[in-house]
Design goal:
The chain contains four helices and twelve strands. The longest helix is centred in the first third of the chain and has 40 residues. By secondary structure, the protein is of the alpha+beta class. About 20% of the residues are buried.
Length: about 250
């Protein structure tokens, strides 16, 4: 009787394995759908992976990004729900830089799945050398549609639509922020990228100039140009890690 009971118990355990796997699969699917709804229509979390926004945001900081501010995208599509708000000077935003191509099937389906299971720390995208790249950047909005923007010694000067004079960025952007400008390597020419200078650029409809606060160490509009509104995913609203810096950005 003992052997019969032992054999029966083993088979019962084996029969339960598919049930457990099916339950875990259902749980994963439901969790993923909830994740897609929350991140697409409300808020998502990002980890800062560079020093380009120092001292405002440090490498390793984790932030919350609102999808509602500029209008959320319908999941797996390029369709955006229209709202009245648009990015304003001084906003810190998450966006896809111009050199990242828009997702096509099946990448537009697989990429969110990878983001979900890796907590937005991995991507399927690769650069020309075959290295994995992350498709999003974080920068500050400096120029908005109608502006003409130029940069001298790492500082931006803005001529607003209908105006005839350039005004330093700090006089037009509300709120306090610090721009790092210290960069004097020997032999570095002004015309090279990251030199701190940019010829005047006039912005049309839905076009923006985005710059990092740490200008000498930021890859931004100085090197890859304007950013279309359709590439701006959301506004950084809160930092929640480290806890010592928790609060509104």
């Amino acid at each position: 009787m003992y052997r019969v009971y032992e054999k029966y118990s083993t088979r019962t355990g084996l029969r339960r394995i598919p049930q457990i796997l099916l339950y875990l699969l259902k749980l994963s699917i439901v969790s993923f759908l909830i994740y897609i709804i929350i991140t697409s229509f409300f808020v998502t979390s990002f980890s800062i992976g560079s020093v380009s926004m120092k001292p405002t945001l440090e490498n390793g900081d984790r932030v919350l990004v609102s999808s509602l501010n500029y209008g959320p995208f319908i999941p797996f599509t390029k369709v955006r729900i229209k709202v009245q708000n648009r990015p304003q000077r001084g906003d810190i935003v998450i966006f896809k830089p111009p050199y990242i191509k828009n997702y096509k099937f099946p990448l537009n389906i697989l990429e969110p799945i990878v983001n979900f299971f890796t907590l937005n720390s991995r991507s399927l995208l690769k650069d020309a050398a075959g290295h994995r790249i992350y498709p999003y950047m974080v920068k500050r909005v400096i120029g908005v549609p109608g502006d003409t923007v130029k940069i001298k010694d790492f500082l931006a000067y803005i001529k607003e639509s209908g105006k005839s004079v350039y005004i330093r960025e700090s006089s037009l952007i509300h709120g306090k922020y610090h721009v790092i400008t210290d960069f004097n390597p020997s032999g570095w020419k002004e015309g090279l990228p990251f030199s701190g200078n940019m010829d005047p650029v006039s912005l049309g409809k839905n076009e923006y100039i985005l710059l990092g606060d740490n200008r000498p160490e930021s890859s931004d509009s100085r090197s890859w140009g304007i950013v279309k509104f359709s590439r701006i995913m959301g506004k950084v609203i809160y930092r929640y890690e480290p806890l010592s810096k928790f609060g509104k950005i």
